[in-house]
Design brief:
The complex is a heterodimer of chains A (531) and B (75). Helices cover 73% and strands 0% of the residues of chain A. Chain A is mostly helical and 531 residues long. Chain A folds into 2 domains: 205 residues, no CATH class; 317 residues, no CATH class. Chain B has 75 residues and is mainly alpha-helical. Chain B is built from 4 helices and no strands. Classes of the chains: A mainly alpha (531), B mainly alpha (75). At the A-B interface, helix 12, helix 13 and helix 14 of A face helix 2 of B.
Chain lengths: 531, 75
């Protein structure tokens, strides 16, 4: 069952009916059954993977917490009799046991993810190595595994929970089935957002009365998501793919236009899908974390990554960057370099080494191809350059008496960030790294040959589609700007009821009439669903 | 307290840590400094400082850092 289909709409309506008919106390069970039915539609075999994650995480977390309780009890009983050193030694013993349990959980789940996602990548390299080193042509066959839908999202979410339990940031969920719902909640399983247990659990298990407002509000959000996905993203898919594929013929401005449109496509696709997820969850009274905060208005790359795919960014920050930054080995290396080689380089080690690992992993997460790793490392380099040259940039601005709050300065920074990020996305839409560099070079050639009619006639973006998409993009950004001053929906809901229904009807009409169902249309698939 | 000041001096020797109360607010420490200091504190005092503890109030002065370490040691 695809996320955007009549089947899914009917499924949501049916689940809503059952959900609100059931007594409040048991409604979470309806969500659990619905989530497993939804997931079974992606392939019954996929249930096995989600069960492995759920069971292994539940068991490891329970044992980790048991050790914490054991420690608390022991220290309470022996409060007066233990010396500081004995207390510390006991705590270390417990921590060691907990660390083993944490590692078991992490290895099972990330091992599974790495195997499913990267086995063919590894096989390709092994074959290449055997061929170049020993001349072996008897290649190991590829596994061609189809990644279970949303697996990296629910594994990240579950491992976040396990790490939180390890650090004592939250308490375990004792009820296995309630925990299973946290892992599998169907609106967010396709492509996130990646939720934290402490935030999502109370939302999932709370007992709410039926409220039509919630349904209406969620429905608005769903329609807005469909607008971004169907009117913008799907309309642009064929144009972007074809322009990149035919860049020997269509160079210069054609590629620049495709790069711009790809930024619109991926934002419409991903944030549209997230809007649908958040809207559907809202109908069930579940508030999910926002995943986007007007990213194309960011003034630096670092800021952009705080506003794009927010929940993945904070996941990497909290569970990879900070633990690595504070890792004894890395701190000691930094100290050594600080004291023996160079103070300035040394103090950067605990930040830049973990940041490098985060961006390398983020690249790998996006796909098992070199181009994604290179994309990640370019992000790393740009952020480092931005940090290192900040003092220089401040001095230049002071010399030139440039005011940061000046509207032109703000526009310049937003423009620069937008295009830097858009150029980096060339890796995403190119076959491999050399093709991406070639596409980048091609942007700067043959501008004079640009003819918009060729876009309409040969590149799958007919004239009326071009106008529709431009108007839709303007509407999307206008709403983004309006959101700076608070929720647009809340303002709509303050209008007279008749006007509210007019706006909703208009939205439904626009999505129905202008939703794109031509070449390249595949509403069921989301770009991020494949990650 | 002396050990803490020694660690802080390793990063910024020019500061008078007995009297300074705006190490973060006055941007004397940048994020690089804070991470290095936290790492050394964890190593020296064998305590676990996580991202949640990394807030300006805990690092604005040597006294605040001392109070944080004491709290963590008692936990």
């Amino acid at each position: 069952m695809s996320f955007i289909s009549i089947d899914f709409a009917l499924f949501v309506v049916a689940v809503l009916l059952v959900f609100y008919v059931f007594p409040r106390k048991y409604r979470w069970m309806v969500l659990l059954v619905a989530s497993y039915i939804f997931y079974a539609f992606t392939g019954a075999g996929n249930l096995l993977y989600i069960l492995v994650t759920t069971i292994s995480t539940y068991i490891c977390a329970s044992f980790i917490e048991k050790r914490t309780a054991e420690q608390k009890e022991y220290l309470q009983i022996n409060k007066g009799s233990l010396t500081k050193e004995e207390k510390k030694a006991y705590k270390n013993r417990i921590k060691k046991k907990q660390r083993i349990l944490l590692c078991v959980g992490l290895i099972i789940n990330f091992g599974l993810l790495v195997y499913l996602k990267y086995i063919d990548f590894a096989i390709a390299y092994i074959n290449l190595f055997r061929l170049s080193r020993f001349g072996v042509t008897d290649f190991i066959p590829f596994k061609n595994i189809i990644l279970p839908m949303g697996i990296s999202f629910y594994i990240f979410q579950s491992m976040g929970y396990l790490i939180d339990i390890y650090y004592g940031r939250c308490e375990t969920e004792k009820n296995f089935f309630k925990f299973a719902l946290y892992v599998s909640f169907f609106p967010q399983i396709v492509q996130g957002p990646i939720s934290r247990f402490a935030e999502l659990a109370p939302e999932l298990y709370k007992e709410l009365d039926y409220d039509f407002f919630r349904i209406k509000s969620g429905f608005y959000r769903v329609m807005w998501g469909l607008f971004k996905k169907l009117v913008i993203a799907d309309r642009l898919a064929a144009f972007v793919a074809d322009t990149m594929a035919m860049q020997d013929t269509y160079k210069g401005l054609y590629i620049l236009l495709a790069v711009f449109m790809y930024s619109m496509q991926i934002y419409g696709d991903f944030s549209g899908g997230i809007d649908v997820a958040i809207g559907v969850a809202e109908m069930f009274g579940v508030k999910l974390h926002e995943n986007f905060e007007r990213p194309f208005f960011s003034k630096s790359i670092a800021e952009y990554w705080q506003r794009w795919h927010i929940t993945l960014g904070t996941w990497f920050k909290d569970y990879i960057f900070y633990p690595l930054s504070l890792n004894k080995g890395i701190i000691k290396s930094g100290k050594f370099v600080r004291e023996h080689i160079n103070q300035s380089i040394g103090k950067r080690i605990p930040i830049y080494i973990p940041m490098f690992i985060v961006w390398f992993t983020t690249g790998m997460w996006h796909g098992s191809q070199n181009k994604f790793v290179v994309w990640g490392l370019f992000n790393f380099v740009f952020i480092v350059l931005g940090t290192e040259f900040e003092p220089v940039s401040v001095r230049i601005k002071e010399r030139l008496k440039l005011d940061e709050s000046n509207v032109f300065m703000k526009f310049y920074r937003v423009f620069k960030t937008f295009w830097l990020m858009s150029f980096l996305r060339i890796f995403d839409i190119s076959k491999d790294v050399p093709s991406a560099f070639k596409a980048f070079r091609n942007i700067f050639t043959d501008w004079s040959s640009f003819d918009i009619t060729k876009v309409y006639e040969n590149l799958f973006l007919e004239q009326q589609d071009f106008y529709v998409v431009i108007i839709a993009i303007i509407i999307m950004f206008a709403f983004d700007l309006l959101q700076r001053k608070g929720s647009v929906r809340e303002r709509i809901f303050k209008l007279p009821t008749v006007l509210q229904w007019v706006i909703l009807s208009l939205l439904i009409t626009v999505v129905s009439v202008f939703g794109y169902y031509g070449p390249g249309y595949d509403a069921g698939s989301f770009i991020y669903g494949a990650f | 307290m002396d050990t803490i000041i020694e660690i802080l001096k390793g990063v910024h020797p020019e500061i008078d840590y007995e009297s300074e109360t705006g190490l973060i607010d006055k941007r004397i420490f940048d994020s690089f400094d804070v991470v290095n200091i936290v790492g050394e504190l964890m190593d020296e005092f064998d305590v676990e400082i996580t991202a949640e503890h990394m807030i300006p109030q805990n690092f604005n002065s040597a006294k605040a850092i001392y109070a944080l370490i004491q709290r963590l040691e008692e936990e």
